[in-house]
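Notebook B, p. 112. Complex prediction, attempt 2.
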Amino acid sequence: MRSDSDLTGRARIRDAALELFGAEGVNRVSVRAIAARAGVSAALVLHHFGSKEGLRKACDAYVVEMVRGGPGADLDDVSGLAAMLEASSAMRLYLGRAFLDGSPAAAALFDDIVAAAERWLEEGVRTGRVRPSDDPRARAAVYVTWLLAPLTFGEHLARALPGGGSETDRTLRTSRAGIEIFTRGLFADDRVLDAWDAVREERRSP
Amino acid sequence: MRSDSDLTGRARIRDAALELFGAEGVNRVSVRAIAARAGVSAALVLHHFGSKEGLRKACDAYVVEMVRGGPGADLDDVSGLAAMLEASSAMRLYLGRAFLDGSPAAAALFDDIVAAAERWLEEGVRTGRVRPSDDPRARAAVYVTWLLAPLTFGEHLARALPGGGSETDRTLRTSRAGIEIFTRGLFADDRVLDAWDAVREERRSP
DNA sequence: CATCGAGCTGAACAATCGTTTAGCATCCTG
DNA sequence: CAGGATGCTAAACGATTGTTCAGCTCGATG
């Protein structure tokens, strides 16, 4: 009754909405435009999803489900993140917008990813693969933020890389640069870190 | 004729638009809502800016100008970035949306920031403050992306940090965690980096 | 005083929006 | 065959949108 007819109609509308929502933003896209792209009438969209907001929530749930229970990713390591970043362009764009707009589903997803990353980093510290941190929770949050940054800045990131190369080539370059920072660090000494701590001390008792 | 009357009217409309555009997104905000917040009529908004799109471009130009030529930041080091991140909440939200929507002004700003960061990192490498990179251009782009990430994920970042503390306290924690990664690195050995290079070799000749 | 322009407004316009309603076709079930 | 879901559509409704227009006030200029 549900999964049989998913190949046509409902799913086609959802995919069309996902694509347009991601590319243009939810409120720049009309129900009629979604219907046209899906090859159906505008009324059918509302018939299936109740309202435009219902369609948005359905897209939210679908994207989150794909990231969470996606092909082989169980969110207990960070491989789910890589899967997300390799997801379809439509999903990437939609996710970026969902995080910026602060939809509840996106917020819950973010929190879960941070928790998983914190566990993963913690275990890495135990096994010696990951350096210990003065503030593991904050580090996990920042780490996730950085991994997710291409969702928002992917377009600019690709443009910043000069010359040829396919989109995957550029992605490989940027991810390699990120891993390089993660393993070698960026600053050669503790000067910036010490300066920061000095600033904090200064602010603590003015 | 221009800067004298900026304190009222035109500037008030621009500030109201900036705030609402950042908080809700450009197309979720009506001209009438902006006018109401600025305490003027809807017609005056169009009288000053020609159209809603003109108002959006004016907001773009204003934010970019504030970031570029802001108080003491000449964009020749990355201090301008810090100033940007400490800018008003409205500007932060607006900038995040501008980057996501890929407005031309935001794209140009991003490119300029990457170029400045590349120069800054390059000089750091010469003076020994910054570690050398296998791909300086890509590293600069990724670096800027990471510095800009709080624009989009700031809300989630703050929520991920448990318990008390003011907003500035949370910002201090996350920025400190970021600097920690930048100076100490995240991974304790070259395993991830080597694994990545192995993947690249594999993809090069399949 | 006359006049001109700038700041500003209320009312209206056309377009588009999300949504509702009534109804058509089709297919399964009894 | 009767009948009720189900997938789907065309047409219309009310609300809201961006924009236009005629005209008001008021201080500066001649």
